[in-house]
Amino acid sequence: MNASPPLNRRQFLQTTTLATAAWPFLSTGAEPPTPRAGKPKVGCLSWCFHDFSPGVDPEPAIDLIGQMGFDGIELIVTASRDLQGFWTDARLDRYRRKLDGYKLRVSQFVLFQPVVGGLSSLEADIRNRSLDHFEAGCRLGQKLDAVVINIVAPWTLAMTGPTDYLPRYYEISNPKPGEKFHFDIAPGFDFDEVWGRYVQTMQECVARAKAHGLKFTIEQHTHTLVPTTDAFRRLWDAIRDPALGYNLDAGWTLLEREYPPMAVHKVSRQLMNLHLRDIDGRMRRFPPIGQGVMDFQAIVTALKRIGFDGYASLEQDKNPGDPPMRETVQHYLRMMREYIG
User: Fold this and answer.
1) Which of 3, 179, 229, 254 could, after both became Cys, cross-link 266 (CB 3.0–4.6 A)?
2) Are 293 and 280 in contact (CB under 8 A)?
3) Could you read off the pLDDT of 109-168 as tens digits, one per residue?
4) Is the pLDDT confidence value at 7 over 80?
């Protein structure tokens, strides 16, 4: 029996790298994904022009965004009671007519955190209620011909802080003497238990989305169960369903000190949608597009390299002293059309 010559270090690393890259497909029987070929589309979120109060009407935003010539729009359910009380068939029909008239696609139908915040709960009643809200959102999204149903990743309900929306608590601008950055964590908290249940619940969300002809994206935020691309990759590896995708929010990505163009490459096979916003030099605030340090051209370059053909949509914070929102939105559209070509 002839012995093979020993591998040198470079040959060993090359062989190991190839084997590691092929392992997910060999172990699951899945075929390597076909590279996409296309270019990004440009969208805008309706809540650039409205707040998050229950029953807020996105119709004026549909008109503004449609008249500006965007490719896509995202609409959002801001309160669970609105699933039936506000989003009626008559209203959906009216929105559909307007969207069709503007040739405006609902790139994502979004469920705000209060609507589905119980998805991370260990209590079955709370979790199932949020699952029912999620499925009701899927039905609405399907009626609007949405491509995707989207949520921000929930945080564990075992952690509470000084604000209701925990992702926004990431600094103390002017701390009082002795004040500490602090969250309360419930006694007996077990992350492995929470994560295991969360994976199962996300599998159920994927199944319900697919039943309504939709894909499902999760958006990362600080302090949630999916704060970065690495956490999402861990989740995706546990579920491994092509209907589960990533919604990359560039502002929150850089706030977490993760470089957005690299994040694009890290989730290239699962990236379905982007929210784009600018960020200041200290990476704490989201100023109007063009007033910060976000390298949008580098993001577009990364998207082109992976053949991304989904939507890159503006999500703009509102701050005192900002220019009129319409000016900011129009600037974003011009900038993205130029970068995409």
Assistant:
1) 229
2) yes
3) 999 999 999 999 999 999 999 999 999 999 999 999 999 999 999 999 999 999 999 999
4) no
Residue in 244, 276, 238 with CA at minimum distance from that of residue 260: 276
Average pLDDT score over residue span 319-341 = 97
The CA radius of gyration of the chain, in Å to the nearest whole number, is: 21
Q: Which pTM was predicted? A: 0.88
As a whole-number percent, the residues of the chain with pLDDT over 90 amount to 87
- Residue 292 DSSP class: S
Amino acid at 222: T
* CA–CA separation, 109 and 146 (whole Å): 6
**Sequence-ordered list of residues with C-beta below 8 angstroms from that of 114, at least 6 positions apart, any chain:** 78, 79, 80
pLDDT at 35: 57
Dist CA 233 CA 220 (whole Å): 11
Q: Is the pLDDT of residue 23 over 70?
A: no
206 residue type, one letter: V
Backbone angles phi, psi at 178, to 5 degrees: 85, -5
The two beta strands, 215-219 and 244-249, are parallel
Which DSSP symbol is given to 151?
A: E
Among 3.40.30.10, 3.20.20.150, 3.30.420.40, 3.40.50.300, what is the CATH number of 35-167+181-340? Answer: 3.20.20.150
DSSP state of 168: G
Q: Tell me the residue ranges of DSSP E strands in the chain.
A: 41-45, 72-77, 105-111, 148-152, 159-160, 184-185, 215-219, 244-249, 271-276, 311-314
Q: What is the 3-state secondary structure (H, E, C) of 72-103?
A: EEEEEECCCCHHHHCCCHHHHHHHHHHHHHHC
Element (H, E) at 286: none
